[in-house]
């Protein structure tokens, strides 16, 4: 099979390319240049989108013995990931840029170009598995599992994807990289948003959206408790950095409950008010059986799973949670999993539109 290996410059993608080559595939490595201005790249060995990454990827390709190219995807990345990130925060939602990059860049723009050039599939270093049945499953290394950010892929995209690392732990991947003589064996994993060089998300958004002062109000009384410089700097469940001038009567901390861009208002309340038992979502990608279905859902990257009853109707998904969840933010993904003897299977995903409490719905109906 003729495959294109997406090589970020990290250890995972290097070992994935090496395994594909060793398996007898005709492998070509490609590194994605994602910054319009390379000087805005981060520097230092932080594992993703640094100035060194292209060179690290090229050296890995040389060791493996495969052709290597750099593809300029800066415009597509800026439009589909960076601009989307800013627009989502401006709309009061909390996006996941890594998920969007997988959806729009690595498994859309890159895959489309690869197929046009005659490649059969794209190989990546994601920690996830594709079973013989073609279903996406969690990695055997649960702490490193990336099925959550891959659940946005369509059936057609999964059919042309190869994830060689899903049956290995991250520790084993590093050992193998060292055994293969790959210099990236000890390169650190990436943790930050690659296009925010200094890690200051609030500052990044303020430079693009400007200062937009507004009120922070109490959820129960509507009382003004403080002010903010831009609602985009807040996310659901946030506790720190609220700088409230009026303490809670019981002295307990307050949390962000909602963000209303239309009035530029941030609403805060108690931890108990954060709990929701119903999640609604849109932009559904569904691979599972007909619904309603009993399953488990994950509501944010690296978040805990919650048992739920999920129903899909057209492009709308509703999850009735069997246990309340906190910090459910619009813009994040909800991913449904079904437990299986061979590992958790991804049933589908959708973009969260709201988290609500049944009690509030009942009150609204009355």
Automatic annotation (TrEMBL):
Name this polypeptide is given: tRNA-specific 2-thiouridylase MnmA
One BP term from GO: tRNA wobble position uridine thiolation
Coiled-coil region list: none
Domain tRNA-specific 2-thiouridylase MnmA-like central: 202-269
Site feature (Interaction with tRNA) residues: 126, 332
Hydrolase is among the record's keywords: no
Organism: Paractinoplanes ferrugineus
Binding site for ATP: 6-13, 32, 125
Region (Interaction with tRNA): 144-146
């Amino acid at each position: 099979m003729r495959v294109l290996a997406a090589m970020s410059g990290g250890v995972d993608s290097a070992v994935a390319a090496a395994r594909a080559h060793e398996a007898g595939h005709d492998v070509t490595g490609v590194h994605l240049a994602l910054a319009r201005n390379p000087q805005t790249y981060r520097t230092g060995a932080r594992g993703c989108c640094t100035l060194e990454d292209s060179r690290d990827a090229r050296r890995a390709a040389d060791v493996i013995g495969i052709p290597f190219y750099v593809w300029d995807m800066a415009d597509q990345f800026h439009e589909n990931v960076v601009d989307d990130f800013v627009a989502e925060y401006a709309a009061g939602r909390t996006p996941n840029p890594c998920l969007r990059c997988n959806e729009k860049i690595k498994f859309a723009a890159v895959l489309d170009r690869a197929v046009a050039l005659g490649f059969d599939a794209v190989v990546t270093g994601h920690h996830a598995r594709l079973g013989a049945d073609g279903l996406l499953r969690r990695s055997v290394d649960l702490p490193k599992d990336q099925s959550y950010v891959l659940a946005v892929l369509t059936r057609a995209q999964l059919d042309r994807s190869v994830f060689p690392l899903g049956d290995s732990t991250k520790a084993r991947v590093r050992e193998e990289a060292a055994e293969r003589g790959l210099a990236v064996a000890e390169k650190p994993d990436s943790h930050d948003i690659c296009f925010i060089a200094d890690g200051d998300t609030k500052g990044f958004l303020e430079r693009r959206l400007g200062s937009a002062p507004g009120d922070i109000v109490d959820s129960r009384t509507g009382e003004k408790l403080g002010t903010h410089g831009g609602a985009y700097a807040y996310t659901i469940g946030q506790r720190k950095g609220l700088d409230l001038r009026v303490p809670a009567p019981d002295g307990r901390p307050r949390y962000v409950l909602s963000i209303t861009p239309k009035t530029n208002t941030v609403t805060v309340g108690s931890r108990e008010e954060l709990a929701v038992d119903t999640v609604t979502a849109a932009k559904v990608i569904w691979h599972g059986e007909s619904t309603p279905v009993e399953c488990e859902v994950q509501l944010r990257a690296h978040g805990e799973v919650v048992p739920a009853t999920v129903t899909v109707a057209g492009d709308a998904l509703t999850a009735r949670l069997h246990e309340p969840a906190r910090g459910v933010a619009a813009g994040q993904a909800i991913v449904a999993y079904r437990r299986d003897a061979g590992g958790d299977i991804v049933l589908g995903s959708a973009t969260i539109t709201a988290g609500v409490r049944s009690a509030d719905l009942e009150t609204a109906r009355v």
